[in-house]
Amino acid sequence: MILTRDFYERDTLTVAKELLGKVIVHETSEGLTMGKIVETEAYIGPEDEASHAYRNLRTPRTEVQFGPKGHAYIYLVYGMYYCLNATSGRLAGKPEAILVRALEPLGGIEIMLRRRDVSNGNAANLTNGPGRLCMAMGLTKKQNAADLCFSPLHIDVGEVVDEEDIAQSTRVKVDHADEWRDRPWRFYVRNNKFVSKL
DNA sequence: TGCACGATTCTCT
DNA sequence: GAGAATCGTGCAA
Prior knowledge:
By secondary structure, this protein is α+β, with helices and mostly antiparallel strands. It has a single domain (5-189), classed as Methylpurine-DNA glycosylase (MPG) (3-methyladenine DNA Glycosylase, Chain A), CATH 3.10.300. Helices cover 16% and strands 29% of the residues. The protein contains five helices and eight strands; from the N terminus they run ααββαβββααβββ. The chain has helices at 5-8, 12-18, 63-66, 109-116, 130-137, and strands spanning 23-28, 31-44, 72-77, 81-87, 96-107, 153-156, 166-169, 186-189. Strands 1, 2, 3, 4, 5, 6, 7 and 8 form an eight-stranded antiparallel β-sheet that branches. Helix 4 (109-116) packs across helix 5. The two termini are 31 Å apart. 41% of the residues are buried. The mean pLDDT is 93. It binds a DNA duplex (13 and 13 nucleotides) through strand 3, strand 4 and helix 5.
């Protein structure tokens, strides 16, 4: 069953936490790929220096974050990798998003292996990182702004992760020397081997 | 119009 | 553990 809009229209930190255990599904001409979310990070709109929408910066790139919740925000980093986010938040028009940092492959693994061109044969590295999971799921800028409630790219109600299995920490690769750096806005499933970093 | 750099990953040492 | 790959974006000029 697909998550409905109201799931995303809540406090972003809550949504980031509850996204753990949910299942991302992408239907393409190549076939179906699915993966369980095991790691997320929250990026809270204008006041978060680490967010692209810091200071309400509204550009063609960040535009999606200002739109309806429950849409995909996909952007290019380092000129070669994509990152998948879901827009969220209680306030309409406030740019908040959740970065999906890692998945546990559930379906279409053959397709993922092909897309990732896993030369070392290590399937454990298939989706344990924001850039990697986009490659494995076949996500590019084309899916940017896709409605996660309806499109071929959507998120299913998976399993509920026990509170005790949820770990919280500071975000990865956010080194700005200000108060936002140390916010524990990263969530992950404890002891899951597909989490990107411990 | 030009330029420095990033919500990363891979390879080689 | 360090360095390269690689290009769209935001900001200065």
